[in-house]
Design goal:
Layout (H helix, E strand, L loop, with lengths): L1 E2 L6 E7 L6 H14 L8 E6 L8 H10 L6 E4 L3 H4 L1 E8 H4 L3 H11 E2 L8 E7 L3 H9 L5 H4 L4 E2 L23 E4 L4 E4 L2 H4 L13 E4 L1 H6 L2 E2 L7 E2 L13 E4 L1 E2 L1 H7 L1
Parallel strand pairs: 2-3, 2-4, 6-8
Antiparallel strand pairs: 1-9, 4-5, 5-7, 9-14, 10-11, 12-15, 13-14
Length: 263
């Protein structure tokens, strides 16, 4: 049995802009980020943090310097508000780059902003709970959201942003994305019992004839939960070379209690 790493995790650049946080406090920020990225399982994204380059810089200075160096992607900033609010500042693009048409940009400024000095270039920034930045990055990179859908309106350049968590991470945290595995025939349990198959629906509207799962002891040994699934397909890719004939590729769930307890 092997657990598949579908793709390497994205790398999100981060920069510290304040000298008021201790190394311990910054370490905690990184730990919160790793928790939100499900780093103990299959990480969604890794944070590459520079602790010194932009200390004392404003978000606008950070963006301008990175743009000049050809780094155009969004980054995050650890600033003076990070420790108390447990948040990072997401630094996106300039408004005049996100909305290239002047008429569209002027309309957006007129209808959605406050306290913007005449002629000031507007940087799109969003404060996000540190633990939820990985999920936000994933949704942004896959096109499931954009910066305009998330900006607080009116977008006020003079007032600090507040942010609330999407999930209750202490009592009801989200589950990590289920991993895909490849298991050989002797590692798999099969069932056609309606008690197990009735909870699934195939694309044609009917229920599956059979469901499978990893044997429970093997699942426990690998930090997984053995759950019935109808998404099994025969293994065939080059990564699966050496697997026995009849091996299947299917999803299971992480045993979050066991993995969390071993951290």
């Amino acid at each position: 049995m092997v657990i598949l790493q579908e793709t390497p995790p994205d790398i999100l650049l981060g920069f510290v802009t304040t000298s008021t946080l201790s190394s311990t406090a910054i370490d905690q920020v990184e730990a919160d980020f790793r928790r939100g990225a499900f780093d103990a399982y299959e990480p969604l994204v890794k944070l590459s943090l520079d602790r010194s380059r932009f200390v004392g810089s404003s978000p606008e200075q950070v963006r301008s310097t990175l743009d000049a160096a050809g780094i155009r992607e969004a980054v995050v900033i650890i600033d003076v508000e990070t420790k108390e609010s447990q948040s990072l500042l997401w630094i996106d693009s300039w408004l005049d780059e996100a909305l290239s048409e002047a008429s569209e940009r002027d309309e957006w400024v007129r209808e959605n902003t406050a306290n913007v000095p005449e002629g000031q270039r507007i940087l799109l920034k969003l404060r996000i709970k540190t633990i939820e930045v990985p999920d936000f990055h994933l949704r942004m990179s896959t096109g499931n959201t954009d910066i305009f859908m998330n900006l607080p309106l009116p977008y006020d350049l003079q007032s600090p942003q507040t942010c609330l968590p999407t999930y209750d991470w202490d009592t009801n945290p989200p589950e990590p994305h289920p991993p895909y595995i490849i298991a050989s025939p002797e590692e798999i349990e099969r069932s056609s019992d309606p008690q197990h198959t009735s909870g699934f629906l195939m694309p044609n509207g009917s229920g599956p004839k059979e469901v499978v799962r990893l044997k429970e002891e093997l699942a426990r040994q690998n930090g997984l939960r053995s759950v019935w699934t109808a998404d099994a397909i025969p293994s065939s890719s080059s990564r699966e070379e050496g697997m026995l004939e009849g091996s299947l590729r299917f999803s299971q769930k992480w045993d979050t209690e066991r993995v969390a307890g071993s951290e």
